[in-house]
């Protein structure tokens, strides 16, 4: 008799979602996690004594409220906070800042008064355009996906078909130019939109295929929403752990898995790196496809075409996170001085234009540290004082395009150089910023790969490229959360619909298990 009905590998939000759904349906469930904390790449960690940082993901940008109800997370103390502003995008002094007010009326007034009626009209046009794409997403969310080409061919009219073709296979600029025809006008707004388009890709906003990432970010959730849980992003996983345990499930930390146990072509459990073997009738992997199949299963147990498909998945995604503690908030000067009022400065993003992004993409491709890097700088403790001691603050800077293939011997030197340049994007506008920094930790994609075991440190678990989405995620013919190994299922963001904090892959993977279980 098996030790458990189901073992879930990985206690990130998707793994915990899958485990919780199974436990709620009466299965005995064990979730094993290699680290000593839950959350995976969406964890809240005390990197410095008394300060809590969101390591990895930090906001529920593409999350749907529907999942709160499906998972009953309100019963376990999850409290979501929505700040007055999501970001303040800035560039050159002559460019009017683009402020992401979360209230519809306030952002409408900001656009009309500060950017002009044409900016309002352009953004409204883009929003309506993307709603057509969202209608397709909504139909495909909670089921194994239909092939993209089939969706395009079966579009109800020529206009929708053209929209799908342009969005899926075109560049982000191809999409945006329909509504922002002048490259120089409203370039901060365009830059902000393009920053989403390159998130989770190995592309520039001018690269064919980046339009899909743009659409994904603005249609996957209810809105591109910068809500965060009180207590940090890890509070989501904490609530899921409480729900799982409340329904009889168990999380076992500090338990790295060596391989899956396979007998006669069927999964029989897991073998831990300690040598211990734990049996189960079903195993679910929330790891990416490369880690699941090439490391945990082994090529010799899989069809050769499937193995080759897994090997072709692209994970190149170079980036850098800087986590700091600060003794005071930055005091911005010049054209940014207004951000000190009402704490608009809590999230400042240096994104001058789409062309600026593209220039740094070229440097990144040549293995160079960007000379004037993008920098998204947040002070989460401004909105959530529980993250830092009174009078102090947490600060995190995210900067994309850190060279992916940096030589090992150059990693520290190049990461510190890029971190210094990213910090300088804030310090040049806020002279007190550097002196306010007390502690600093610089983390690259290499650190995330080593700490969490994710292939290439890729937080998307397989980049947001057209050839790696929908029915091709993770591999053609296996987008239904099942695998060539009987009773081995997938439930992580390497599955449909994709990355970001959604809980949907975990939910869908668990429900595929339940179909067989009930049968």
Descriptive overview:
The chain has 519 residues and is an alpha/beta fold. Among the domains are: 4-42 and 64-70 and 231-313 and 461-518, FAD/NAD(P)-binding domain, CATH 3.50.50.60; 105-219, no CATH class. Helix content is 36%, strand content 19%. Strands 1, 2, 9, 10, 11, 12 and 18 form a 7-stranded mixed sheet that branches. Strand 3 and strand 4 (51-56) form a beta hairpin. The longest helix has 24 residues, at 117-140. The radius of gyration is 22 Å and the shape is globular.
Largest sheet: 7 strands, mixed
Report mean pLDDT, rounded to a whole number: 96
Main structural class:
alpha/beta
Low-confidence stretches: none
H/I helix tally = 17
| Proportion in β-strands | 15-25%
Features:
single chain; 519 residues; alpha/beta; FAD/NAD(P)-binding domain; seven-stranded mixed sheet; 17 helices; 18 strands
Gist?
The chain is of the alpha/beta class and 519 residues long. The chain contains 17 helices and 18 strands. The strands form four sheets. Strands 1, 2, 9, 10, 11, 12 and 18 form a seven-stranded mixed β-sheet that branches.
Reconstruct the topology from this structure.
Layout: E1 4-9, H1 13-24, E2 29-32, E3 42-48, E4 51-56, H2 65-71, E5 80-81, E6 85-90, E7 98-101, H3 104-115, H4 117-140, H5 148-153, H6 158-169, H7 172-176, H8 187-198, H9 210-219, E8 228-229, H10 234-246, E9 250-252, E10 257-263, E11 266-272, E12 277-285, H11 289-297, H12 304-311, E13 319-326, E14 347-350, H13 354-365, E15 375-378, E16 393-400, H14 411-427, H15 433-436, E17 437-444, H16 445-452, E18 488-490, H17 504-518
Helix pairs in contact: 1-10, 1-17, 3-4, 6-9, 8-9, 8-13
